[in-house]
Amino acid sequence: MNFYRSKRVNEFLQVASLSDLPQGQTLCVEIDGREVLLCHTAEGVYAVDNLCSHADARLCDGKLKGQKILCPLHGAAFDVRDGSALTRPAITPIASHSVTVDDDAILVALTD
């Protein structure tokens, strides 16, 4: 797994290049010690915390299907657009973060 060093740009952090994240793929980045999963869907790039809220499995080891990221441990699905838990056994959402793309740069603003 590749981790990218973040670079601050105003309130957003530059975390990766769009060329590093083909559509339909995910990329795990570390921002201020926090693992964040970038997900490139047909609708755009989204960022969510990398841990499943059910069993702390790393979502980067799961599969991206459309707007859903599937947990590799028990198959719980989360909507990458807002972090909502879509299927059991997960019932608690995961944090989602604001993303903007500027030319080739992917920038993320973390939520608390």
Can you give a write-up of this model?
It is a single chain. With 112 residues, the protein is an all-beta fold. The protein has one domain (7-100): 3-layer Sandwich (Rieske Iron-sulfur Protein), CATH 2.102.10.10. 0% of the residues lie in helices and 45% in strands. It has no helices and ten strands. Strands 1-2-10-9-5-4-3 form a seven-stranded antiparallel beta sheet, with no helix packed on it. The chain has a three-stranded antiparallel beta sheet with strand order 6-7-8, with no helix packed on it. A hairpin with a 2-residue loop joins strand 4 (34-41) and strand 5. The radius of gyration is 13 Å and the shape is globular. The two termini are 25 Å apart. Belongs to the bacterial ring-hydroxylating dioxygenase ferredoxin component family. Pfam families: Rieske (PF00355).
Q: Going across the major beta sheet, what is the strand order?
A: 1-2-10-9-5-4-3
Give the helix level as a range of percent: under 10%
> Would you identify the CATH H-level superfamily?
Rieske [2Fe-2S] iron-sulphur domain
How many distinct folded domains?
1
CATH fold type: Rieske Iron-sulfur Protein
Number of strands: 10
Spans of at least 5 consecutive residues with low confidence: none
Biggest beta sheet summary: 7 strands, antiparallel
Number of helices: 0
CATH architecture: 3-layer Sandwich
Family: Belongs to the bacterial ring-hydroxylating dioxygenase ferredoxin component family.
Keywords: 2Fe-2S, Iron, Iron-sulfur, Metal-binding
Protein name: Non-heme iron oxygenase ferredoxin subunit
Pfam families: Rieske
